[in-house]
Design goal:
By secondary structure, the protein is an alpha/beta fold. The chain is built from eleven helices and eleven strands. It has a six-stranded parallel sheet, sandwiched between helices. Helix 3 links the parallel strand 2 and strand 3. Helix 1 packs across helix 10, helix 5 packs parallel to helix 6 and helix 7 packs antiparallel against helix 8. The protein starts with a helix and ends with a helix.
Length: 339
């Protein structure tokens, strides 16, 4: 399992390189909804560099025309256009192969992801509604928090409109993997670009469960190290929010993680093999309706759910501990979408 994850991670730089070439057509239109925000702008900058993107459509309620003009000066092939407001949303989405939603308000000190629910849930629902009607076959990648609830919201919207394909709806949890890899490398001295740790569960606090027993290269952890590292990975978002002291949340690292996931999808859609990323999706791995595990990606989205592998006792306890919170967040999203 971890070998697959390594391949996906190492491909990030290849796809974003100016000199990267593939035999498949470079035809993908990618839409970023919330492109003028703290995540949306750096995410769009990273996406602009990909040779697998022919058109980058940037949508927000304001300022996207300027962002698009700025990005259009970059010497890469993707054509960029900005769209502003509800009246231009459908035009932005037309023909999209991938839709990425970082839209919403960021966390501030003292806030939890659930504090964002009432605002971001409505945003995720309205944008999902538009995408389900205009480009229902596109890969839908949701960054907007709380992901544990916004993904179930999008799922319900697509189901209501009769276009739900569980292979194509993703909650982007890649940042948890990126953080785990980084923190493990810092602690154990492993090469950071070769360190790979699957992260399962959800995308908030205790629902984030790094499988340190499956990290590659294999590392030994004391009980104290395992506990401290797990807690740090779970609370890494708060670490950034506190460090920015009211100036925002994890925008740059999230943009990197979002681009990494989009590039993995693009590669798989263009025929690359053994592309795997963790993501929060509809799942039968546990009794929970949605769950993040490593996924084998293909031209039509998810080809196979690779599951959790064998968990050690500490991880099994973490799995059981997360279930009530994750179940509640999923139910909250489903209820919101159906009220």
């Amino acid at each position: 399992m971890a070998n697959f994850v390594r391949r996906a991670a190492c491909n990030f730089l290849n796809v974003s390189s100016r000199n990267f070439s593939v035999s498949a057509p470079r035809h993908a239109k990618v839409s970023v909804l919330g492109a003028a925000g703290g995540i949306g702008q750096p995410l769009s900058l990273l996406l602009k560099q990909s040779t697998l993107i022919s058109e980058l459509a940037l949508y927000d309620v304001a300022n996207t025309v300027g962002v698009a003009a700025d990005l259009s000066h970059i010497e890469s092939a993707a054509q960029v256009k900005g769209y502003v407001g509800d009246s231009q949303l459908e035009e932005c989405l037309q023909g999209s192969k991938i839709v990425i939603i970082p839209a919403g308000v960021p966390r501030k000190p003292g806030m939890t992801r659930d504090d964002l629910f009432n605002i971001n849930a409505g945003i995720a629902m309205s944008l999902s509604e538009a995408a389900s009607k205009v480009c229902p076959d596109a890969m839908m990648c949701i960054i907007s928090n709380p992901v544990n609830s916004t993904v179930p919201i999008a799922s319900e919207v697509y189901k209501k409109n009769g276009v739900f394909d569980p292979r194509k709806l993703f909650g982007v949890t890649t940042l948890d993997v990126v953080r785990a890899n980084t923190f493990i490398s810092e602690l154990k001295g492993t090469p950071v670009t070769q360190t790979q740790c699957p992260v399962i569960g959800g995308h908030a606090g205790v629902t984030i469960l790094p499988l340190l027993s499956q990290v590659e290269p294999s590392c030994n952890f004391t009980d104290e190290e395992r506990e401290a590292l797990t807690v740090r990975i779970q609370n890494a978002g708060t670490e950034v929010v506190d460090a920015k002291a009211g100036g925002g949340s994890a925008t740059l690292s999230m943009a990197y993680a979002g681009a990494r996931f989009a590039f993995a999808l693009l590669q798989a859609m263009n025929g690359a093999k053994n592309v795997v990323e963790c993501s929060f999706v509809e799942s039968d791995v546990t009794e929970l309706q949605f769950f993040s595990t490593p996924l084998l990606l293909g031209p039509n989205g998810i080809e196979a759910n690779l599951g959790m592998g064998t968990l050690i006792d500490y991880e099994q306890e973490g799995l059981e501990k997360m279930k009530p919170e994750l179940s509640g967040s999923i139910a909250k999203g489903i209820k919101f979408a159906n009220q």
